[in-house]
């Protein structure tokens, strides 16, 4: 079994992306990851013995992020402000999308409910199978499928509504 | 993947019925293929997923753990205190050359020897009385403390 430090190093970016997606603020996302890794370090013997330690850490991140969202319910304004304007230069492909379009999609994503956002993030960005998404979010596999369907559908509606995509 | 296949997959993608492999194919298609105009706007969405996947956590700040920092501060404070005490002590001590050292002299015990029989007896009684008193002090303290313990326990 790999040591906790190796597990943490391999999964840290994924935890950060999930936390960022959920809380919408990079500093707060960093805090969430820090808390999760600290908590994980204190229980490292148990975690190292698990079948899928990254799934456990993702689940912890999801739960911590939910706690944060619950602790400050009125968040919409700040989430929208935490757009990806400074991240657009990091896009890995050469398509000619403007930063405005990607930023707009980001803002549309932030309009989705937290559960749909996290399911979409884990599927579209992290490429996790339904079972692992269910483990991370505490939903059933069927619920994950429904949330994914609704999330994508809602996103498409938002895109159509904002006239980014024309049917 | 051709345009027709991509359109069909896209419909299934939004219906939530695509497999991970098909979703991967779609992402590859929108990243690399010459996408027709009617599908081009969707490229932004897949580009967005790609962009989100490229985000990495900021580098960790190398800060000492709070516990370690406290320990180091405590050690530093203790060392500083020791140095201060030692400095003060040395400062207060006179120099070795000026310290008044008594000259060692032999004691003539014969001057203190008791030769009178009554005086010797009186001295002996005094010594024995004092010793007896001191011997009783210890048990007295012990008995008192045991009594206190018993009171507490009761």
From TrEMBL, chain A:
<comment type="similarity">
    <text>Belongs to the sigma-70 factor family. ECF subfamily.</text>
</comment>
<protein>
    <submittedName>
        <fullName>ECF RNA polymerase sigma factor SigH</fullName>
    </submittedName>
</protein>
<dbReference type="InterPro" id="IPR039425">
    <property type="entry name" value="RNA_pol_sigma-70-like"/>
</dbReference>
<dbReference type="InterPro" id="IPR007627">
    <property type="entry name" value="RNA_pol_sigma70_r2"/>
</dbReference>
<keyword id="KW-0238">DNA-binding</keyword>
<dbReference type="InterPro" id="IPR013325">
    <property type="entry name" value="RNA_pol_sigma_r2"/>
</dbReference>
<keyword id="KW-0731">Sigma factor</keyword>
<dbReference type="Pfam" id="PF08281">
    <property type="entry name" value="Sigma70_r4_2"/>
</dbReference>
<dbReference type="InterPro" id="IPR013249">
    <property type="entry name" value="RNA_pol_sigma70_r4_t2"/>
</dbReference>
<dbReference type="Pfam" id="PF04542">
    <property type="entry name" value="Sigma70_r2"/>
</dbReference>
<dbReference type="InterPro" id="IPR013324">
    <property type="entry name" value="RNA_pol_sigma_r3/r4-like"/>
</dbReference>
<keyword id="KW-0804">Transcription</keyword>
<feature type="domain" description="RNA polymerase sigma factor 70 region 4 type 2">
    <location>
        <begin position="105"/>
        <end position="155"/>
    </location>
</feature>
<keyword id="KW-0805">Transcription regulation</keyword>
<dbReference type="InterPro" id="IPR014284">
    <property type="entry name" value="RNA_pol_sigma-70_dom"/>
</dbReference>
<feature type="domain" description="RNA polymerase sigma-70 region 2">
    <location>
        <begin position="10"/>
        <end position="73"/>
    </location>
</feature>
<dbReference type="InterPro" id="IPR036388">
    <property type="entry name" value="WH-like_DNA-bd_sf"/>
</dbReference>
UniProtKB/TrEMBL annotation, chain B:
<protein>
    <recommendedName>
        <fullName>DUF4880 domain-containing protein</fullName>
    </recommendedName>
</protein>
């Amino acid at each position: 079994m790999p040591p906790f430090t190796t597990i943490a190093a391999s999964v840290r970016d994924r935890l950060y992306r999930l936390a960022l997606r959920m809380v919408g603020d990079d500093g707060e996302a960093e805090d969430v990851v820090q808390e999760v890794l600290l908590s994980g370090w204190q229980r490292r013997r148990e975690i190292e013995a698990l079948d899928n330690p990254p799934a456990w850490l993702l689940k912890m991140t999801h739960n911590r992020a939910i706690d944060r969202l619950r602790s400050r319910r009125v968040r919409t304004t700040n989430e929208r402000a935490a757009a990806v304007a400074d991240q657009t230069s990091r896009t890995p492909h050469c398509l000619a999308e403007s930063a405005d379009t990607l930023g707009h999609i980001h803002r549309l994503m932030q309009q989705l409910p937290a559960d749909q956002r996290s399911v979409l993030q884990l599927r579209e960005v992290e490429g996790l199978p339904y079972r692992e998404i269910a483990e991370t979010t505490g939903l059933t596999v069927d619920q994950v499928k429904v949330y994914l369907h609704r999330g994508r559908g809602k996103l498409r509606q938002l895109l159509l509504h904002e006239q980014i995509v024309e049917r | 993947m051709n345009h027709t296949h991509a359109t069909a997959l896209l419909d299934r993608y939004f219906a939530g019925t695509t497999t991970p492999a098909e979703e991967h194919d779609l992402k590859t298609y929108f990243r690399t293929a010459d996408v027709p105009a009617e599908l081009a706007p969707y490229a932004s969405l897949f580009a967005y997923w790609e962009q989100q996947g490229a985000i990495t956590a900021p580098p960790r700040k190398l800060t000492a753990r709070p516990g370690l920092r406290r320990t180091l501060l405590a050690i530093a404070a203790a060392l500083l205190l020791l140095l201060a005490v030692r400095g003060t002590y040395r400062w207060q001590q006179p120099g070795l050359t000026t310290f008044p050292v008594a000259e060692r002299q032999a004691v003539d015990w014969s001057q203190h020897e008791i030769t009178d029989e009554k005086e010797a007896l009186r001295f002996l009684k005094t010594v024995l009385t004092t010793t007896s008193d001191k011997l009783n002090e210890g048990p007295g303290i012990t008995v008192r403390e045991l009594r206190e313990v018993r009171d507490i326990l009761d």
